[in-house]
Amino acid sequence: MLRRHLWIVAVPALTIGVVPVRAETVTVTIEKMRFSPAEISARPGDTIEWINKDILAHTATVKGDWEVVIPPGKSGHLVLKATTPVDYYCRFHPNMKGRISIPAR
After folding, report:
1. Mean pLDDT score of the chain
2. Which of 6, 30, 99, 101 suits 14 as a labelling partner, its CA being 20 to 30 A distant?
3. Best CA proximity match to 72, nearest among 51, 98, 84, 54
4. Which of 69, 70, 21, 26 lies closest to 47, judged by CA?
């Protein structure tokens, strides 16, 4: 008589996890007709918040793309979608300029 044995071997599942990157909020202060800091680093999905401490309204504008209006004494925000660096300015005061750099992954 021929006997056959069936062996069941338990193998732990191999899990390769990807740790999601948490979106962050990056703050830019507008004071004395300047974006401060003038250059920030942010990733797609991060929120950029501009806090306007001036008595005048300002914008954060990317020509042909987006614009955030920031009233005096208020804040405005945008969830970043760009995957390449972005230069922005205030439409009301074009000498005010800022840059959003995208860090390498």
Report:
1. 87
2. 6
3. 54
4. 26
